[in-house]
Amino acid sequence: MMAGVTPPPEDPPVRRRRRTPAGPARAAGPPPSPAVAAARVLVQALAALGVRDVVLAPGSRSAPLAYALADAALPDDERPAGAPALRLHVRIDERDAGFLALGLAKASVHAGERGPSPARPVAVVTTSGTAVANLHPAVLEAHHAGLPLVLLTADRPHELRGTGANQTTEQPQMFASAVRLVVDVPAPGGLPGEDRDLRRTVSRALAAATGARTGDPGPVHLNLAFRDPLVPGAEPWPVPAEAGLSQVTTRAQPAEHVAAATGALPLVVDLVDDAGDDRARAPRRARGAVPTVVVAGDGAGPGAARLAEANGWPLLAEPSSSARQGPNAVGAYRLLLADERLGGRVGRVVVLGRPTLTRPVQALLGRPDVDVLVVAPRGADWPDAVRNASQVLLEVPSRMRQGKVGAPAGWLDAWRTADAAAQDVLDGVLDTPEDARRSRSGPRVSGWALARAVARASAPDDVLVVGASNPVRDLDLVARWDLAPLVLANRGLAGIDGTIATATGVALALPTRRVRAYLGDVTFLHDVGGLLRGPAEPSVNLQIVVANDDGGSVFATLEHGAPERAEVFERVFATPHGVDVAALCAAYGVRHTRVVDTDGLLPALAAPGTGTSVVEVRVDRAHRRSLVERLEVEVAAAVDKALSPLS
What we know:
Layout: H1 34-48, E1 53-56, H2 63-72, E2 87-90, H3 94-108, E3 122-126, H4 130-133, H5 136-145, E4 149-155, E5 181-185, H6 194-210, E6 220-225, E7 292-296, H7 303-311, E8 315-317, H8 333-336, E9 348-352, H9 359-365, E10 371-375, E11 391-393, H10 398-401, H11 411-431, H12 447-457, E12 463-466, H13 470-478, E13 486-489, H14 499-509, E14 515-520, H15 521-526, E15 542-548, H16 566-574, H17 581-587, E16 591-595, H18 598-606, E17 612-618, H19 624-643
Parallel strand pairs: 1-2, 1-3, 3-4, 4-6, 5-6, 7-8, 7-9, 9-10, 10-11, 12-13, 12-14, 14-15, 15-17, 16-17
């Protein structure tokens, strides 16, 4: 060291932290997913607010909901802590998923041990894009039928909309006015208060779906945006919480109409008080012994039959009214309304439910000399297609309920006499050997003979799901029950869409009852995908009776089927298909039986067995129009003869 040079100070010693021995290496898991957490909170809220069934169609964007629902569907001893108990139903086709949910909701009215109750909401989950659009037919049916569906549609986050991102479109307004509520829920980010807000949104959606505040139940739409990651990690389920949940008091309904959950019915002020005094708007005819009939449309309820019996009025009840039974029910009413001594004398009609099946009934309701009283306990609209209702009532006035209105002497007897004569003609025509037309595939029966056999095979505890078009109209003409089975039909829009899926949902909701579906071949083919059930999905006991006339014979009895239009009728209206139904059923693993005559039909109906089965009945189409004309002529003659002594 050089003299006079001061050395630099030494650096302080470095302190090294002693490391503890490392344990086994742990793989870094994915960060907690806000989408997964939000989906779990949403599922908890649905269960807390009364949802018991959820239908899922698979997809990637909806994965957070799929994982949450898979947990919720596990047995009690396997379900994670915090996950609620729900029944999960999986279908690959969103159209069938929607109608399966609709069938579950429709049948839930009748699932209780204490009688009919309001329909229970059912949720249906889809991924984004066209998957959402495929729900539209079921949404429209639920809208017009007043059934509570909760649509949970997954979506891309807002920043990806309008950018050309894959499988992304404008989903929130897709269903327009067909939903009671639509909420576009932003993608969760894990921020404070999000869970509470989501529970509040679900509370409002369930209240709107059930009509708790409005008296107008129907579908609701929650469009749920999710960002990646979409899969759960090791994070546990959130602890169930009530923050944001609202238990909404349900608007009171007249007890008589609790079961009327299959038609959009109104909530309006009763224009007639119980005393029927001058404060009410004057009816079109004088009060007293006015010749009155009760028209019971879809969802009318058994109260329609009691009303008719209390006052001695004829009951003109459609099969899905839940009222077509008892001594006042007139089976062949649509063939009798043209008679001046019957339909011509009607001065007042009391309408319950939503009548849609026959033109003669609509003509009666549109007559200016007929006082039309529509009883409609809930909903935003009321059934009045001909715009002739003089009064729209919340409930039947007490004087009518108590049987204090009455009818002219002999009024009910005349209808009963005429109906008996008409039924004799129907039985005679349908039992005639000429009815069995020969074809290359063997003898065929008429649609009415098949409908009569189905009606006779349906016991009071059975459930009959009826397809649109001819089957429900044929049943309407020939069904006679002292005590009717539960008859359900999609009469909201009366389409053929999703009938097999609807019937499957009904069978899932009512597992202890024998469920049968009766539909035409075009309806069957339109929803043949409803037969598809994955191996992990529960089977149902469901017998499907198919009236196969190789096309759409309902048009044959309309103006399109007139002989002068025969050149174009077959291709553009009848639409023959030539499908081998047996081979189709084999492809889906469904038992198939082909019946060639009524004698073979009755044993097949009586022993449906377990699981889903199809009974195919070859039905004559070529002679339907001529048979209708024959029935009308012969019934008119028989009724005239029967009523002559009473004139």
